[in-house]
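User: Predict the structure for this protein chain, please.
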Amino acid sequence: MWETEAGSAWLRLLVFAALYVFGLKAGVGADTLSLFFKMIRIDTHVGVSPAALRTQINKMEVLLPLFQEECEKSVKKQRRKVVAGLDETFFGNFMILVLMDLRSGYLLLEDISDDRCYETWYKKVSPRLESLGIEVNHAISDRAKALIKVAVTGFDCDSGADLFHAQQDMSRWLGAKIGRRAANAEKQLQAAKTKESKVSKTATMLKISDLKATRITAEKELEKAKKTQADYHENLQGIGDEVHPFSLNDSRINNAEKVEHQLELRAQAFEKIAEEQEINDHKGMMKKFRNQIQPLAVSISFWWLWVRETLQSLELDTDTELWLTSTLLPVVYWHQKMEQTKNCNSKASYRKAWEVASDKLKAAPFSEKLSISQMQQWLTLAENMARQFQRSSSAVEGRNGCLSQMYHNGRGLTERRLNALTVIHNYGVKREDGTTAAMRLFDTEFPDLFSWLLNEMGELPLPRNSSKRVFSNPLKLLNVPS
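Assistant: Here is the predicted structure, written as structure tokens:
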């Protein structure tokens, strides 16, 4: 079967697909892949020794960056404005600088570096953005000084704080301590109930009364701990609920001043919880959070400025612009958020906000004047606008986590393997809608990455004609010349 043309093509597809998916993307070792190929008994037709497989994987690592280079050269040169996420991640004795377009997920830079100072960042990023014709209008990162300077000085834009890190700071300060106290209160209640249930019938009334009082006290302590924990979770979730271009309650337009005010109220709530629970702030987490309030609100200001500039270029009349920003955009925005989130509580909140905004859209007189084609036109514009709003660099953190898992599974990460994985992320990973990061950034169709790679890999290596294994006999005496 393998000697037929169809069988040979299928065998070639099988081997290279396994090397691409498991050897490159999943980081499975060549020894394990060799064992797999031998178990399915294709080692008589293909060279599947660990050395032969490593050679093929190395060839893939060399070819993949060439694919990205060809695709980027084929793209029509034009200025593209993006919201970028910046971060640094560490693996063993080396560091990786990461720059990603947050809307599309395209990795603009993923490079191993010796340091993370501003000069190094700018030296690596500047020629890369210039070659792609990309202009960073807004940058989101943690509050590392070099990253802020890259945004303000290098990109000449505002540096927005990362919502993920702001919530994480509060969680590290209060979350674990409050959780432990709630767990201890529950254990004390269970112990009190156990003692009360084991009391003998001959026990004195005083002892029974003391055990009951202990149980009631434990119940009150648990109730108090649970209430504190619920307040903490409500305010932690509330940090994210405030950083939206529209109010989660009534879908009215938000601005930076409103967001800063609401985040300050959340900060005061955290301070109250810490004071009641007598939790000290030795590391100054509250000050750190307050320093991020204004940069968090900057994302709102930037997005509304970008929206108004876009609408001005369309030269719309006042009624159309007002309907688009205050009526249609909230519907599209909350729907996108509802589809994106996997948190059940957030999804319920977004659905409620979407339903409120949808009712307002249906009741608007301006909506009834539009034809189906006109509504679809405005809907497409609104979807593009809503996708441009970014408030977190969690996509970059997710990428770092993926690399971390591969680094530890594969016991290392070379520069050539990293370059290959970057190309796979940009051109090989697809979302549910079937688009890759490159397609979303450049708005262009590209050749299928694996199909291109398959055409470039050449023929499969042939198996070696190994000699028969010789078993030595310890009982056989060798003739030794005298």
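Residues 205-242 form the longest helix (38 residues).
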